[in-house]
Amino acid sequence: MTVQEYNDSQTAENKEICDFLYAIIHKNLAEAENKIWHAHPVWFLDGNPIVGYSKLKDSVRLLFWSGQSFDEEKLQNEGSFKAAEMRYTNASQINEEDLERWLEKSKEIQWDYKNIVKRKGVLIRIMTKPY
Description:
By secondary structure, the protein is an alpha+beta fold. The chain has a single domain (3-126), classed as Aspartate Aminotransferase, domain 1, CATH 3.90.1150.200. The protein has helices spanning 3-8, 12-28, 96-108, and strands spanning 33-37, 40-45, 48-55, 60-64, 76-77, 84-88, 110-111, 125-126. The two termini are 27 Å apart. 29% of the residues are buried.
């Protein structure tokens, strides 16, 4: 499945959210690899997942794998590692300026999820190269 097929499979309202998120993420992370991973769109830098979105029961979740380290009030902690999220029920809720700032931080602030299994669940901060 491609990202566009994923977006096209959503309801009209959720497709609008997904298409808008895709456009902004793709524009700001042109150098990132993008694919369907664990059934939803995810962007990777050097094999490390940094951002993705997925359809939940009542919203579309935008997830930043290292988002808890971004120091951003609007992002909510998710899970027991370093991820943070924002949930949308309408495309009009997406603040493009916020999203672009978060995407910039996602390039600079990364925890090494790529090797989390090898490190038995231990996350370490990785030094990122300029993209």
